[in-house]
Amino acid sequence: MGWIEGLNDAMDYIEANLEGELDLAHAARLAACTEGQFRRMFSYIADIGLGEYVRRRRISRAALDLSRGERVVDVAVRYGYGSPTAFNRAFRDALGISPSEAKRPGAPLSVFPRLSFSLTVTGTEPLPWRIVPWDGMRLVGVSLPCGPSEAGLLAQMVEEGREELERFWGGASRSGSIDALLALADGSGPAGVLGVNVSEGGELSYRIAVASSGEAPGWADEIHVPAGTWAVFDCTGPCDVATAEHYRRIFSEWLPSSGYELAGDVSLEVYPRGDFSSRGYRSEIWMPVARRPRG
Q1: Is the N end or the C end of the chain the one with fewer CB atoms within 10 Å?
Q2: What is the pTM of this model?
């Protein structure tokens, strides 16, 4: 099955289960990736977090049910809200009116449309990439927990998440942690300071790390990444915008036509020494991949 078909199967599943228990890990499997990968991919392609998309679709369907005269309490329960108060708050935040007001004839309602994905030819600049096999690596660094995947700002890469990332990097730089980590780097992995995206059991985290086989200092943690195949993408430009733009292109342009699928729960951003804000700054994104099965 192709990448686009898998994504649309995932969207079909979400749409069919807005009223019941929604298993986003199952939706991710339909898209041939893990839940963490699915959430990150979705946010870059759709420009909205997956959890927010689901919330908007549920509110949109709830508004339709209310306009047909159904009771507020029944609709609230149907779409997973534990109390009319919580439903009222979410409904008003989304549509600007209360559920009771939505029941009135002529009430102004909005529809958040269902998303579907298609492969388009954009004619954009080439996206340089190469396949690199690599033995396992040990990464030593400091982590920023993002909480449960449903609420993980960094995984969704909404504006708040990008601002939190900037604060995290700024704090690590001012504290001297980045320089201390670079002193541990020993060439056992990609050269430079790494931004590491990790999804473990529904929990998401982002690390600033280096590849090292040396002893980790007390203030750092470590993870072990198994041997595998990586698709490596060259990025040029200020890293605060170039990285996000390249992720979007990887998910929306490269994956649908590459013959590869995502594999593993760790992806890397490789930042060599230099001026991160320069238009000529060169960085890399490493994505774990495997050949997509034929047929």
Answers
A1: C
A2: 0.79
